[in-house]
Automatic annotation (TrEMBL):
Membrane topology: Multi-pass membrane protein
Primary location class: membrane
Protein name: PA domain-containing protein
Keyword Glycoprotein: yes
Length: 536
């Protein structure tokens, strides 16, 4: 009933196509490593104690110079924090300290100069308060040579540093502990996210293929009854379904790119609120469609009786009963989406939306599927990697994380919290990384159903294996590259398309897959009348 709304969400779904990971370790080609200044940029936890009681935990960034900060909390010493005098530490401090950690302001001198003065006065570490709320990378100048620094340096954002400064100026005894815990080798959140994505494609494909098979059975039944003129067998579709073509597949990427730039430029609180509203509309439609399809088995009379609703048309009684619950579910999620467990509601709305789109929107043949995935493949690579040349940052990653807002990112994502990660956060995957390959996988299963192929002799099993393998390689690459966001379609598209094309070519069915999208069939219900014999 709301195919237009679902299609609108299809355009938005590719906005966050990159699988984003953590950013504990940072690399910077503009600040290359030199002898004595060759540390990776790492995030550092600064746990505080005030008057002997555990206080707030802050997050800073380690310097390029100095010794490496310990990774295990048990190896980090709890050390007294002392205010520097002068506070900027751009000249030697007036008083000696005995192993304390020195708290200093950013000032105008070099980071290395501050660290040398702090070390000379007996400090065991230096914590620098930045003059803005962001974190800067503490680097060395290319011509610096005296970099023999033996104390660690940590930069805190302005709000965190000011909180510690206020505690000290009010006469409180403050001590801190500096450490940078490693992420676990295997992120359990990514395992569950992989299972969620593969399971969504699997379920949506079977629903799409089942609907197509029911339509074909109904067509054949009507043909047997002599109603050939009522249906077009070649179309193989049913009412409410939308077959995309090559032009719409290309336009999808163009429109999605324009929308992504608009998001990047206009990203703000009100714009994210608008996206939340759009997501809720699509989520309500998806949740309602899935619930009605599921409940219709037990409430068949309510599903088959209709009432006419103004501006909408005929709506089943079951849909009217389910709709208020779906609207309430989406509204509750939108209002409380900042709570720790709100990700469950977001994933439910997202999965049902993806399943509904795959059930309604159909790839008619492999040619259209190849154009769609190839364009999405280029789209993903461009906006994750190439966009850095023009925008000096990855547009896709910035939009996916919601860097310019107070939100955790755009809502068109599936996400799971990193439950066993000391840094917390979420593992995420964009709708486009599930939905777009899912359209092609669903096409493969529909083809198998019509051709009456088994699992091993068909295309669906192998396309599912290819999709799962491509997504798995994405997460492997994500971890090998220190958590930097990866365009998942970079790996998924070659696996999925390559498998289908190679199998079709090997089996001699590539022509049918590419152009027709269905096997050649002989219609047993069409009879050619015999021509009368011509007179001699």
């Amino acid at each position: 009933m709301a195919a237009a709304a679902v299609l609108a969400l299809l355009m938005v779904s590719a906005l966050a196509g990159a699988a984003a990971g953590g950013d504990i370790v940072h690399h910077d080609d503009e600040a290359p490593k030199i002898p004595g200044c060759n540390n990776d940029f790492i995030l550092v936890k600064v746990q505080s104690w005030v008057n002997g009681k555990e206080g707030d935990e802050f997050v800073g960034v380690g310097a390029r110079f100095g010794p490496k900060i310990v990774s295990k909390e048990k190896h980090a010493n709890r050390t007294k924090l002392t205010l520097a005098d002068p506070i900027e530490c751009c000249s030697p401090p007036k008083d000696k300290v005995s192993g304390d950690i020195l708290l200093v302001q950013r000032g105008k001198c070099k980071f290395t100069k501050k660290a040398k003065f702090a070390e000379a006065t007996g400090a065991s570490a230096i914590v620098i308060i930045n003059h803005v709320h962001e974190l800067y990378k503490m680097v060395c100048e290319r011509n610096e040579t005296d970099l023999d620094i033996h104390i660690p340096a940590v930069l805190l954002p302005k709000d965190a540093g000011s909180a510690l400064h206020t505690l000290l100026t009010n006469g409180n005894a403050v001590s801190v502990q500096l450490y940078s815990p490693d992420r676990p080798v295997v992120d359990t959140a990514e395992v569950f996210l992989w299972l969620m994505a593969v399971g969504t494609v699997l379920g949506a494909s079977y629903w799409s293929a089942w609907s197509a098979r029911e339509a074909v059975i109904e067509q054949e039944k009507l043909l047997k009854d002599g109603h050939e003129g009522l249906l077009n067998v070649e179309a193989g579709g049913s009412s409410g379904m939308v077959d995309i073509n090559v032009v719409s597949a290309i336009m999808f990427v163009v429109v999605a790119s324009c929308f992504l730039i608009m998001l990047y430029k206009l990203m703000s609180y009100w714009f994210v609120e608008l996206l939340v509203v759009i997501f809720c509309i699509g989520g309500v439609e998806g949740l309602q469609t899935c619930l009605v399809a599921l409940l219709s088995r037990w409430f068949k009379p309510a599903a088959e009786s209709f009432v006419k609703v103004p501006f909408i048309g005929a709506v089943s009684h079951l849909t009217l009963a389910v709709c208020p619950f779906c609207i309430a579910f989406a509204v509750v999620w939108a209002v409380f989406r900042q709570l720790p467990y709100a990700w469950i509601g977001q994933d439910i709305l997202g999965i049902t939306l993806i399943v509904t789109v795959i059930q309604i929107v159909r790839v008619p043949n492999l040619k259209v599927g190849s154009v769609l995935l190839s364009c999405a493949f280029l789209y993903d690579i461009f906006w994750v990697f190439v966009s850095k040349r023009w925008f000096h940052e990855s547009v896709m990653i910035v939009v996916a994380r919601g860097d310019k807002t107070d939100e955790d990112g755009v809502p068109m994502l599936l996400k799971i919290p990193r439950m066993f990660d000391p840094w917390g956060g979420y593992s995420i995957i964009g709708f486009g990384d599930i939905l777009l390959p899912g359209l092609v996988v669903a096409f493969a299963l529909r083809y198998d159903f019509v051709a009456k192929k088994g699992l091993q002799s068909g295309y669906f099993l192998w396309s599912m294996v290819a999709y799962g393998s491509g997504l798995l390689i994405t997460y492997v690459a994500l971890n090998l590259m220190d958590g930097h966001g990866q365009p998942a379609l970079l790996y998924i598209v070659p696996f999925t398309l390559g498998t289908l094309i190679a199998l079709g070519w090997k089996r001699g069915e590539l022509q049918n897959l590419w152009m027709r999208g269905q096997p050649e069939r002989v219609c047993t219900h069409m009879h050619i009348p015999l021509l009368p014999a011509s007179p001699k």
